[in-house]
Amino acid sequence: MTSEEANHAAYDFWLKKTRARISDPVKASILAPSERPRPAAAKRSSFEMDYFDLTGSLMCIPGLQNTAGVMLKEESDRDGANTYLGLTRKGYLNMLLYYSVHGPAALSNSPASIELQARWIVDAIRKIDKSGLSYIEPTEEAEKTWTEIVGMITSITLFPKVDSWYMGANIPGKKVQMLNFPGGLLLYEQMCWKVLETWEGFVTV
């Protein structure tokens, strides 16, 4: 931290090791830029074990495809981010998500958000079992409406004025859209449990 030369050497060592772990060259240029953006360790470093190896979360799960046989990554690259309540996705029967796209996620207190969604998932599973259902699946219209709600709330904020990770603008070619539910946990909770009362927006079989 007292020598520019030594600091550059440390960054170059980190760069070489990190680039070797990222298979996508576009992501590599973003996550591990060839030019040192700032002195190494001048900002707190992230202590991680596999972050750079697993960039993309759901997209990295082998064989994850919808009922039409389309891979999730291909679907997302084509249509952008779509979920219903940030908890489910059309074409993926009984796939219940948390801390995912269009949920409160990064715009909320993480433990509180995860706990809220986990309670909804547990209640949904109990209701599925009690009703003798085989599966639930959101409708295309429900997904579209939820995405529009997220976009509508976002439009009255300053988020769209900045190219950021929140808006999915950190990856070239990716659709720019809000990736989190920006209406707060209280509103989100009310909307999710209202849906659970009647399965509004779901096909139930």
TrEMBL record:
Keywords: FAD, Flavoprotein, Monooxygenase, NADP, Oxidoreductase. Its cofactor is FAD. Transmembrane segments: none annotated. The keyword NADP applies. Belongs to the FAD-binding monooxygenase family. This is Uncharacterized protein. It comes from Aspergillus lucknowensis.
